[in-house]
Amino acid sequence: xxxxxSGGDLVQPGGSLRLSCAASVFAFTMYTIRWYxxxxxxxxxxxxxxxxxxxxxxxxxxxxxxxxISRDNAxxxxxxxxxxxxxxxxxxxxxxxxxxxxxxxGQGTQVTVSS
Length: 115
Prior knowledge:
Blueprint: E1 2-6, E2 10-11, E3 17-24, E4 32-38, E5 45-50, E6 57-59, E7 67-72, E8 77-82, E9 91-99, E10 102-105, E11 109-113
């Protein structure tokens, strides 16, 4: 299983970015996909999830109303749309795919929010 994140960039506060997570995996629809982030000096934290069956989405409180997560099963890709970005959103963002007892991670993409 290979996960490749992309879309990270330097953006000003209030700006938007869309991150992508492209998965090379059989039966992609059976994987729950999560985004995590890790800021310098901090532990990795969960940001958002999209489930397998009905595509339900969940978000950590700090990004609710600003971030959305979606999956395109035809392209084996999950997107994280980030709006109204704040400096505290600065981090490396990681994609995670989970099914049964297996967890897979991408290499991460850097998001920097700064003026």
